Amino acid sequence: MKLDSQVFHPSISFLPSWPAPLPLLYITQSGAAVLETEFGTDARTASLSVPRLSFAIALANLPFGALVDRYPIKPIILIGGSVIASASLICAVTHHFALLIGARFIQGLFIPSHTTCIAAYLARSLPAARLNVVMGSYVAATVAGGLGGRLLGGWIHPPLHWRYAFVSASVLVIAATIAAVRWLPQKIPERRAKHRPLVSLNC
Prior knowledge:
This protein is an all-alpha fold. The protein has helices at residues 32-39, 43-46, 49-70, 73-93, 97-110, 115-125, 128-156, 162-183, 190-193, 198-202. It has ten helices and no strands. The N and C termini lie far apart (38 Å).
């Protein structure tokens, strides 16, 4: 059966991998008590690994939106995914809490290279018939990512094995990066780029 070009777009094939970096948001939440013991900190300090990452995401959303306006999306996703995965591996092996927090902050700075940039790309390239569904998927992916992080850091890998959770998250990000580079076209189609300003997405 032939799919209607106004309903289907090749970029939709990437949607299952879109939220891959989002589990990193809450991956340490379930193991906060373990971090407190392992790094010899108090509960307040041990809990910083989540808000520091969230703060970094808030800082980086608009700059990445500006980058995807001016440059091809694939190099942005490739660099961002590489940095996120590398920072995850640093979190997995470090024995210094300050380095863990620093790596988490760097993760947050580059997570928008996947979330914001891909959302901006799809907003400009998808047919109008699919746009509302896909933007709704962005919200659903955020919720699923938060839940996935808690499951990854507290159920799939028990809190005592929180380092393995970071390794698993790194593998997910690498897979999502490869998928994005493979499936997303290099440039945003002109026909959509003229009609979907990024500011409307970020508001």
